[in-house]
Amino acid sequence: AQRVTQPEKLLSVFKGAPVELKCNYSYSGSPELFWYVQYSRQRLQLLLRHISRESIKGFTADLNKGETSFHLKKPFAQEEDSAMYYCALSPRGGYNKLIFGAGTRLAVHP
Amino acid sequence: KAGVTQTPRYLIKTRGQQVTLSCSPISGHRSVSWYQQTPGQGLQFLFEYFSETQRNKGNFPGRFSGRQFSNSRSEMNVSTLELGDSALYLCASDSGGSGEQYFGPGTRLTVT
User: Fold this and answer.
1) What are residue B83's phi and psi, to 5 degrees?
2) How far apart are the C-alpha atoms of A109 and B11, rounded to whole Å?
3) Residues B102 and B94 sit within 8 Å (Cβ to Cβ)
4) End-to-end CA distance of chain A
5) ∠ CA(A23), CA(A35), CA(B100), 5° rounding?
6) Of A19, A78, B12, B40, whose CB neighbour count within 10 A is largest?
7) Bond into B8 cis (ω within 30)
8) Most A CBs within 10 Å: which of B100, B102, B108, as the mutation test of the A interface?
9) pLDDT (tens digit per residue) in A29-64
10) How far apart are CA B38 and CA A96, in angstroms?
11) Which of A4-13, A88-97, B82-91 shows the lowest mean pLDDT across its residues?
């Protein structure tokens, strides 16, 4: 079965603290993995994808095929990082089908 | 470039009715995907169209259907509405397989 699990509904941290948003996936093969973010009153938008290996807004995510994980990390959280974060999987050959996790709300407190 | 637009933004319908939602992708994008978002089930893939052809379909009943026009605009239709169809319906466009989808603001459908 193709599934994405985000075990935390809410992650609450203080400004300057490290952040790790967890994502585990279930897929028999090599999927493409993404992190999407939705800021308050804004649209869902792509944050980063594993094949680009970029760091966006200080966030990074490493694909661990052994643990089937794609955790999102940032060393020092900022208040503007407060948002809803969704991990998503696209099956190989699945074109633009995205399987989303339930999402984690990140709250960064001053 | 203008972003993905969806109309209408809000809709209230009665059980048993049908509804049509519209999505205009970013200019030049040929792929349009549709998602349903509910508090209980989260974001679920409905279907994807590319160059007027349905390329992929999620696990939804046949009451949910869609189409895409030659200008890449897409519509989705839900027939015989049920209370459980109340949701935010999102569409997203992509240039054609990059995997980076651009989402619209959604249409909030309430079925009473």
Assistant:
1) -55, -35
2) 36
3) yes
4) 41
5) 140
6) A19
7) yes
8) B100
9) 888 899 999 999 999 999 998 877 777 899 999 888
10) 20
11) A88-97
Mutation pick from A30, A96, A99, A105 vs chain B, by most beta carbons of B within 10 Å, is A96
Average pLDDT, chain B: 94
A-B C-beta contacts closer than 8 Å? 55
All residues at 6 or more sequence positions from A43 whose CB lies less than 8 Å from its CB, including other chains = B3, B4, B103, B104, B105
* The residue to which tokens 């203008």 are assigned: B2
List the single residue in A32, A45, A86 with the smallest CB-CB distance to B99: A32
CB contact under 8 A, B42 and A46: no
Contact A100 B103 (CB under 8 A): no
User: Residue B66 and residue A57: Cα distance in Å, rounded?
Assistant: 36
Residues A108, A44, A40, A48: what is their CA dihedral angle, to the nearest 10 degrees?
A: 30
Cβ contact A99–B45 (<8 Å): yes
- Tokens standing for B40? 């209980």
| B33-86 per-position pLDDT tens digit | 999 999 999 999 999 999 999 998 999 999 999 999 999 999 999 999 999 999
Is residue A88's pLDDT more than 90? yes
Which strand (E) or helix (H) includes residue B41? none
**A28: number of Cβ within 10 Å:** 8
